[in-house]
Amino acid sequence: MTLYDAIGRNYSQTRKRDPRIAVNLLEILQSSQGSTIVDIGAGTGSYATFLAEHGYRVIAVEPSSIMREQAIAHPAIQWVDARAENLPLPSSSAGAAIIMLAFHHFQDYSKALEEINRVTGNGQIIVFTYDPSAIADFWLTKYFPSFTEDVRSTFLPISNLVSELEAVTGKTAKITDFPLPYDLSDSFAAVGWGRPEVYLNSKIRNGISSFAKLEATELDRGLSCLKEDLESGVWEREFGYLRKQQQYDVGYRFVYSS
Ligand SMILES: C[S@@+](CC[C@H](N)C(=O)[O-])C[C@H]1O[C@@H](n2cnc3c(N)ncnc32)[C@H](O)[C@@H]1O
After folding, report:
1. Structural domains of the chain, with CATH
2. The pLDDT value given to residue 258
3. 3-state class of 218 per DSSP?
4. What is the pLDDT of residues 107-160, one digit of tens each?
5. Assuming Cys at both sites, which of 89, 165, 169, 242 could form a disulfide with 194, CB separation 3.0 to 4.6 Å?
6. 3-state class of 154 per DSSP?
């Protein structure tokens, strides 16, 4: 059983693709329409579907059956039950790869990148990920302090990811910041940067792996503190300026080769 078999049952309800992330992805993608893109850790296929709707063929690789079962079938998407570290796909069977908030779940980063590079025939690799050096600045860690350690031990530092990507592909990697919009529709960990109330919703929390990993005592304590601070106005006084911003750079990044 994979982590997402345990926590992903309602994933497609809260983790809807965000159109701004999808458009950004399309802008970075250098492959021409009609070519094949491999989506590694495709989840329920929200970004794979976007590419399919824009004229690409997609091989969606996903080890969790609970996630795959929620995918809406599309004739241009082929689903494969596999892990990034061992892809049952011929060399050069895709022209590029996307890895959307999945890289930090891989067990062996280097092996996964070698495999992905083999399958793309040294094509473009695009990773949407989080910069762990930014986590201490995010107000949510005031309520759930162990997020800091969890994120730092889970996400590869951006400079390490760049080095790994460059070593495997032999090409220079680029980094693009992705400030999160206020009304982000893909409810991942920082979705509530300017809307703290969303974290009080258990459905939203259930789609976020960092919350799934929290001890029950820390979760309960953090939620009641947040609720109290929202009711008393403490949150507003400290962080209320965020409600006035349209977007905020919490630390999400596209890291990609050409
Ligand atoms: C946070 S979800 C992201 C899903 C999708 N990319 C999206 O953006 O909606 C991470 C996904 O990575 C998958 N995953 C975990 N370990 C993996 C591995 N070793 N290889 C490929 N996918 C993996 C999980 O099953 C899960 O579906």
Report:
1. 3-257 (3.40.50.150)
2. 86
3. helix
4. 999 999 999 999 999 999 999 999 999 999 999 999 999 999 999 999 999 999
5. 242
6. helix
Any ligand 1 atom below 6 A from CB of 68 = no
Residue with CA nearest ligand 1 atom 9: 43
Structure tokens at 68: 């795959």
CA distance from start to end of the chain: 35
Amino acid letter, residue 80: V
Spatial separation of the C-alpha atoms in residues 30 and 78, rounded to whole Å: 21
Q: How many residues does the chain have?
A: 258
CA-to-CA distance for 166 and 168, rounded, in angstroms? 6
Q: Give 4 Cα–ligand 1 centroid separation in angstroms.
A: 8
pTM: 0.96
DSSP string, 17-76: PPHHHHHHHHHH--SPTTSEEEEET-TTSHHHHHHHHTT-EEEEE-S-HHHHHTSPP-TT
The Cα 76–Cα 99 span in angstroms is 18
Token pair recorded at residue 172: 């220079």
Cβ atoms within 10 A of the Cβ of 147, count? Answer: 22
Q: Is 45 in the pocket of ligand 1 (CB under 6 A)?
A: no
Task: Cite the beta strand spans of the chain per DSSP E.
Answer: 36-40, 57-61, 77-80, 96-100, 124-130, 173-177, 180-181, 247-248, 252-257
For the chain, list residues with pLDDT below 70. none
Query: In whole angstroms, what is the distance from residue 49 CA to residue 76 CA?
Result: 9
